[in-house]
Amino acid sequence: MEANETQALLKEIVQTLKDGEKGYSEALTDVEDQDLKEVFKKYAVQRDGYLTEIEDQLHQLNIKVEEESSVTGTLHRVFINLKSAITSKSRESILNECERGEDYAVKAYQTALKAEGLPGQLKSIIEKQYQGIQQGHDEIKALRNASK
Question: What is the pTM for the complete model shown?
Fold first, then answer.
């Protein structure tokens, strides 16, 4: 894998984690259901920890990932309608938006796992994090299905 491809892939992972952390942090302050507050807090903390792990590894490998300069790009990808779902107070709507964000995160990690030539330790971290991302997706989906 060329350096530019690796950088773009890692930029996508970093931005996905930032988006997820921000989305869950905002959701937990706005949602009224205590059980959802706990779930959202858990995943906000998880994404923040994953981000730290990835950034530490990038620093060790001397890989620079440019910051996303477009707010529009960030908003387009994840939790795009979460604010309006929370405003409507519909548990199902909130969870639908969270699941959409989780779908995006799962896809980003699956793409990263298919990439050739990632440094071994970084690939291991991505593999480990993918398990947590997939678990989060499944939990959000189960909560959403139970809310119907």
Answer: 0.86
